[in-house]
Amino acid sequence: MLTELKYDEKGLIPAIIQDVNTGEVLMVAYMNETALEKTIETGFTHFWSRSRQKYWKKGETSGHVQEVREILPDCDADTLLIKVIQHGPGACHTGHRSCFYRNIKGEEVAGKVFSEGEVYGKKDN
């Protein structure tokens, strides 16, 4: 199946990260072939940062790692659903459990679960 995956013109494939126990979508990030291989080899999510142009292991700074339980390509093989156990209180660098904590009006629908200032050394929003 790995050879059938369809990466975009930049060699990336979107990865939807979902809590294996609750079904909550925690985040969306991008992987290239190497990041996916690292994820499979280690059992923890690794991504390609489009803004920093480098690999990163989720939780390398915060300790809030994601333990992979299952990787599912979609029917077109151009998106991955990765079911994880989220270690630590949250996945979002803003201090929320999920990156999807606002509605379309910009209203917060889920509160913070940790202080990003304490975890990352930057000011909380």
Detailed description of the structure:
By secondary structure, this protein is α+β, with helices and mostly antiparallel strands. 12% of the residues lie in helices and 30% in strands. The chain is built from two helices and six strands, in the order E-E-H-E-E-E-E-H. The chain has a four-stranded mixed sheet with strand order 2-1-6-5, covered by helices on one side. The termini are far apart. The model has no long low-confidence stretch (mean pLDDT 95).
Mean pLDDT: 95
- Give the total of beta strands: 6
Number of helices: 2
Radius of gyration: 15 Å
Cα separation of the termini: 42 Å
Low-confidence stretches: none
| Coarse morphology | globular
Strand order of the largest sheet: 2-1-6-5
Largest sheet, described in full? 4 strands, mixed
Helical residue percent band: 10-25%
Find the structural class using helix and strand composition.
alpha+beta
Please write the string of helix (H) and strand (E) elements. EEHEEEEH
Topology:
Layout: E1 13-19, E2 25-31, H1 33-42, E3 46-49, E4 54-57, E5 66-73, E6 80-86, H2 116-120
Parallel strand pairs: 1-6
Antiparallel strand pairs: 1-2, 3-4, 5-6
Task: Provide the descriptors you would attach to this structure in a database record.
30% strand, globular, four-stranded mixed sheet, 2 helices, alpha+beta, 6 strands, 125 residues, two-stranded antiparallel ribbon
